[in-house]
Amino acid sequence: MTLPDTDPGARRVLALASSALVVLVAEPLYLLVDTAVVGHLGAVPLAGLAVGGIVLAQVASLGTFLAYGTTARAARHHGAGDRAAAVREGVAATWIAVVVGAVVVAVLWAAAPWLADVLGGGGAVSAAATSWLRIAVFGAPGILVALAGHGWMRGVQDTRRPIVVVLAGNGFSAVLCPLLVYGPGPFPALGLEGSAWANVAAQVTVGVLFIGALLRERVSVRPVPADVRAQFGLGRDLLLRSAAFQACFLSATAVAARFGAPSVAAHQIVLQLWMFMVTVLDALAIAAQSLVGAALGAASVATARRVSGRVTRYGLVLGLAAGVVFAATAGVLPGVFTPDPAVRDVVPQAWWFFVALQPVAAYVFALDGVLLGAGDAAFLRRITLGSALLGFLPVIWLSLALGWGLLGIWAGLALFIAARAVAVGVRVRGDAWAVTGT
């Protein structure tokens, strides 16, 4: 069975994107709730959450190779009509997630004080970050298993089960977070540590549910060395790409912390909104991954190009709309996350970069999805590393040396996004990415 040489149409693209959107926004929406809950404890706990959270976020970001690589490989098998082979990609990815997750727990628990000092600059902020991270890290295996689960389900275009799983886990945690932080009634008031325990509850719940879904597929769950090696082959480039992203954002948080608790707290607020919008825009990218991978697996380059054009147009419209909304709410939205006037005074330094970048980021993420679906990971690794090393990172550290504050940090992000926009735009116009077959 192969796919016809036709446009899958707006309805199919939007169906995949809307289901992905629900899944993607669940986690950042929970993080926004978490930020708002902890923000009312004061600037130091919020800064501690910023430092600890950015470390744990690296687990999810570096682990995206489990989602993106699995989606690309599973989608090609799905396009060729072999569902069992597609699901076996999920089995291999889940075994990798379990093993890597156990290693991550051990390493981050031991390194938490050192990482908190490096990123938080020592003192009360680093102590708060250490306390939070040493609890929250126990959710790392669940994070990675969930990424593997999303990968194979997106590959076979399963749009319902990921929604149920993610809403169950994150909904439970969103209710639990304020109860554990503030301690109403019989609940203990754990403060910042309550936020960490709520995170663990979410990740464990989601990981268990994804493993259950894999078992119900009735394929062998024994690890196949050849499948694991193939996952690592594609994952290598995706991992290096993710590492470049995270080196930039870790550096940004570290530099913001050197300008004081109000600066790093303000950076946390705008960064979490940025991450929220990244995941919203990534919904279209995920639809592109699934549809482009399936089209190329069915040897239909024309369909892959039609998908590329459609998701790019939709992304630009979405990015422009987001920019307008955030510009209109600039005087109101930051106050939702903190009552501290010192923090709110610093927010505008990053806010207008955040607003202006929305349509550019939408364009980049749409075409990232096309190239990820095609398995063009080596190219994405090269342009991401180049943009980071020549753009984002130098500007971030110049900001520290020259005292530019958040203005310099977010100018670096703008340069990084613009360079990637040019590179992916040129790539998609050519033919090198459109390789057919499984």
Automatic annotation (TrEMBL):
CDD domains: MATE_DinF_like. It holds the Pfam family MatE. It is a multi-pass membrane protein. It is found in: Membrane. InterPro entries: DinF-like, MATE_fam. The chain crosses the membrane at residues 12-33, 45-69, 90-112, 132-152, 164-184, 196-215, 238-261, 273-302, 314-337, 349-367, 379-398, 404-423. Belongs to the multi antimicrobial extrusion (MATE) (TC 2.A.66.1) family. This is MATE family efflux transporter.
